[in-house]
Design brief:
Structural class: alpha/beta
Number of domains: 2
CATH superfamily of the largest domain: Periplasmic binding protein-like II
Radius of gyration: 20 Å
Strand order of the largest sheet: 2-1-3-10-4-11
Largest sheet: 6 strands, mixed
Distance between the termini: 20 Å
Order of helices and strands: HEHHEHEHEEEHEHEHEEHHEHH
Number of helices: 12
CATH topology of the largest domain: D-Maltodextrin-Binding Protein, domain 2
CATH class of the largest domain: Alpha Beta
Shape: globular
Number of strands: 11
Length: about 325
């Protein structure tokens, strides 16, 4: 077993911790597909149904919101402040921003009932859906409705790496095992298109986050890195790095960006109010526009997990990823 496989297995193990255990009595006899035993999927949309028993609904006085841990949480607490004020107005609830430090911690927080509304990154969406009862319904898009980002493999000028094959014998940084662009997509592409495997052909390292990988390449700590270019573009626009510090040697097809949604067992009326808040938010002149216009995003549009995440599920299948939580 390679260290990459062990790391991926370790990430899966996080999702099977005792806190995630499902009592046998809680498992209902219902269709569920890949969903964990505590959830049902009677309508076949691949996400957890809202419980039929009202006694299982959550209606907290304070709603906890988290954004995917791709960059400095302090930056995003400010960026989301105007939207969260709008969310409070529409729902009549107090809303608190929860700065998560890892994808696994974010999934665990929702599964344990401590996180109610969240944006999960591309690669974490399937795990959040199947293990935490996440019900995504919206995604950020540009004015014309287009959305998405690409995985890029970057290096620094003068590294001696001019094409993907030149990474052989060098150090390649990934972000985390649950990240689509930071691990799963490049792993599948390197294997299928270039016959390149970790440890056999290159030294894999994990930086933890996209900004760490990008800064690591810019500062010549890593020979190359697989990253989400939406994060890189925002960092360039903020002046964190300059364009001449990095060189792209590979660009993938377009993937969906962060999916936003709620935990499955919030009271149905509250779920509808939260959706209303997303789709009625006016971005103009807000802190959200100030931050996300850097990557061309200006609105929330409806989406569904079954269709929008089909390509990500295919990548997971190619990598042998299972969505089991036990």
């Amino acid at each position: 077993m390679t260290s990459i496989t062990r790391i991926l297995a370790g990430a899966a193990a996080l999702l099977s911790a005792a806190a995630f255990a499902v009592p046998a009595s809680a498992a209902e006899d219902c269709p569920r597909g890949d969903l964990d035993a505590r959830y049902c999927d009677r309508d076949g949309d691949l996400v957890a149904d809202i419980p039929e028993d009202p006694s299982q609904w959550l209606d907290p006085d304070t709603l906890i919101f988290a954004y995917t841990p791709v960059e400095d949480p302090a930056v995003y607490k400010t960026a989301w402040s105007d939207f969260l004020a709008h969310l409070e107005k529409v729902t009549g609830k107090k809303v608190v921003f929860f700065p998560v430090q890892s994808n696994a911690a974010q999934i665990e927080a929702m599964r344990s009932g401590r996180l109610h509304i969240s944006g999960f990154n591309t690669g974490s969406n399937p795990l959040a859906v199947n293990c935490a009862g996440f019900r995504p319904f919206t995604i950020m898009a540009s004015d014309d409705g287009s959305f998405g980002y690409e995985m890029e493999i970057i290096t620094y000028p003068g590294s001696g790496i001019e094409k993907v094959e030149d990474i052989r014998g060098r150090k390649l940084a990934f972000t985390s095992p649950t990240s689509n662009s930071g691990f799963k997509a490049p792993s599948a592409i390197l294997k299928a298109d270039f016959d390149m495997l970790p440890e056999r052909d290159f030294e894999p390292v994990f930086s933890g986050k996209h900004d760490n990988s990008i800064l690591g390449v810019a500062n010549k700590d890593y020979d190359a890195a697989a990253i989400a270019n939406s994060v890189m573009h925002r960092m360039i626009r903020r002046g964190v790095i300059t364009p001449d510090q990095v060189v792209s040697i590979y660009k993938s097809e377009t993937f969906p960006t962060t999916g936003f949604g709620v935990v499955y067992n919030l009271k149905p009326e509250l779920q509808e109010k939260i959706k209303e808040a997303f789709f009625t938010f006016d971005w103009e002149g807000t802190t959200l526009q100030e931050e996300f216009s850097k990557s061309g995003e200006s609105q929330f549009i409806p989406m569904n997990y079954k269709d929008f995440w089909a390509v990500i599920r295919k990548i997971d299948a190619a990598n042998g990823v299972k969505y089991t939580c036990q």
